[in-house]
């Protein structure tokens, strides 16, 4: 396992949101970066966590952290364990009074939660080796190619949360 950090959130050539993970200690534009496709909500949640801002209402990942804290557990680590037919898999390890408890999870949720909890994120060596892309392709001048108008996207999402009507989601 290799410990990684979140470089940021980007949009790929197919307009899909991706989270960029890079091994800790690798210099800029050197080594590999793991790009994991995530949904728009998970991307936004990750951006909010990276910015250190608090949303006007708790997001799912905020709720998950609150639940973990409420039951006197803590997030020990997140592991991106494998990729199978283009789908990444992860595990969340919780520290509890009864000992560690490992949960199957999506990497998108795991990363957003780890950022909120300050927990380390790891990627299996074989996943990074098989799926990593050259860091020079995504890092330029110290800036990650983040989603366009990041601040505007965050503001629009916050506005949506403030004005959402539960009836909008009824079938």
From TrEMBL:
InterPro entries xref list: BFN_sf (IPR036104), Bi_nuclease_dom (IPR003729)
SUPFAM superfamilies: Hypothetical protein TM0160
Gene3D superfamilies tied to this protein: Bifunctional nuclease domain
UniProt source species: Cryobacterium luteum
Pfam families: BFN_dom (PF02577)
Name this polypeptide is given: Bifunctional nuclease family protein
Molecular function GO terms recorded: nuclease activity
